[in-house]
Every structure is written in C-alpha cells, then in structure tokens.
Design brief:
Strand content: 25-35%
Radius of gyration: 25 Å
Largest sheet: 3 strands, antiparallel
Distance between the termini: 88 Å
Number of strands: 3
Order of helices and strands: HHEEE
Structural class: alpha+beta
Length: 125
C-alpha cells in the first residue's frame, strides 16, 4: 500500500480562518444586540401612530399629540415634542415625527435618524 504525503502546510489546520469568522459572527451579534431593540421601539411608535389615526374620528388633535409623546416616553425614545406634528382636516389626519436615537458602540456613537409619517383617512362608523 502506498501512502501519499500531504503537501507542506495542508494538514487541515485552519485556525486563522475559523478565528476570523468567529470574530465576524461576534461583531454581527453585538451590532444586532444594540440595533434591534432600537428598531423595534421605532416600529412600535409608528404602529401606535397608525392606530391613533384609525380611531381619530372624535379625538382632538391635542389628545393624539399627548398620547404619541407619552408612548415615545414609554418606549424610551428621545422625542422632542416640537418635532411632532398632528394635523387634521375634514376626513384625513396627518401625523409626522422626526427623532434621532443615539446608539453607543465602544469608541463610537451612531446617530440613527427616524422619520414617521402617517397620512390616512379617518373612518366614521
């Protein structure tokens, strides 16, 4: 039986590549750990604004305004009340908000900017 020798350096030891992929995986998990909760809070605020628009037939603008600011506070979203607009016409309501959430990483803070616009008809039942 003839035994073939493997070429020099081809012993199946790929430690460097494995370590690099592990570091990339850890980095992706870390970024997701920081970013996903921020995105979920933002999506919850947008859904809340949409829900407010659905049932706004008898609700005054000031009450909708206050409820959106309160929901942002509950979600720990740094919302400047001046950056929120609630406008109501006969059959439509338009809500617009802009805010920035700082996401802190070691040595860097990313300023994630959001803008939500809800423009929908008011349903009368």
């Amino acid at each position: 039986m003839i035994r073939l020798r493997k070429p020099f350096g081809a012993r199946g030891e790929g430690n460097v590549g494995c370590i690099l992929w592990a570091l990339v995986f850890i980095l992706v998990v870390f970024v997701a750990w920081k970013m996903v909760p921020v995105k979920m809070a933002s999506a919850k605020l947008h859904d809340f604004m949409d829900e407010q628009g659905k049932f706004a037939k008898d609700t005054p603008e000031e009450r909708i305004y206050k409820s959106i600011v309160q929901k942002a506070n509950e979600l720990d979203i740094p919302l400047d009340p001046k950056a929120l607009e609630v406008q109501r016409t006969n059959d439509y309501i338009k809500m617009k908000v802009r805010y920035t959430i700082p996401v802190e990483f070691p040595g860097y803070t990313y300023q994630w900017k959001f803008e939500h616009v809800v423009d929908r008809p008011i349903f009368y039942f």
